[in-house]
Amino acid sequence: MDIITGYTGKAHVTAEQDRDINIGIFGKGSCVLRAGQQLNAVVISNNEIRITDGVLIHQGCAASIKKNTTNSVTIANGSQGMKRIDLIVARYTKNTSSKVEAVEIKVIQGTPSESNPAVPPYTSGDIQGGDLTADMFEREYFCQQRRYDFYAY
């Protein structure tokens, strides 16, 4: 057994251990924490969306937009008379050579259609399973901490 949250005299906590702790607290899925402005999307123009500050947990991986800052994304112009669904995702990536991991806000552009545009494909991925890309785009719920009962003996 390895200690994770104690001093050992050397760097020893891995990203995998940290993600495991988050999964134990928040579950295996992805969600937005009740912190900051909760990563709200603000429409600035037809082509610019700003994502406000906040923290997300994506399959145990925590990422944030720093307090009182935003990230902007650009939406490509559409075509007159056409409809299109674009996704704004938080994309986790891991570089195979360097092993460096990152989370960035990205736009996945959909395909224009006259009547029923389809949701563009995205990569669901399994971070703990070793996938190199995993997109988070649904913001259906906030993280709900599990409730624990504590008893004194």
Structural class: mainly beta
End-to-end CA span: 26 Å
Read across the widest sheet, the strand sequence of neighbours is 1-4-5
How much β-strand is present in the residues?
25-35%
Task: Give the overall form.
Answer: elongated
Order of helices and strands: HEEEEEEEEE
What is the β-strand count?
A: 9
Number of helices: 1
Please tell me how large the radius of gyration is.
19 Å
Chain-averaged pLDDT: 88
Unreliable runs: 144-153
Oligomer: single chain
Explain this structure to me?
With 153 residues, this protein is mainly β. Helix content is 8%, strand content 29%. The chain is elongated, with a radius of gyration of 19 Å. The protein starts with 14 loop residues before the first helix and ends in a 17-residue tail after the last strand. The relative contact order is 0.19. Residues 144-153 have low confidence and may be disordered.
Offer a concise description of the structure:
This protein has 153 residues and is mainly beta. It has one helix spanning 15-26, and strands spanning 30-32, 41-43, 48-51, 54-58, 61-65, 71-74, 87-94, 101-108, 133-136.
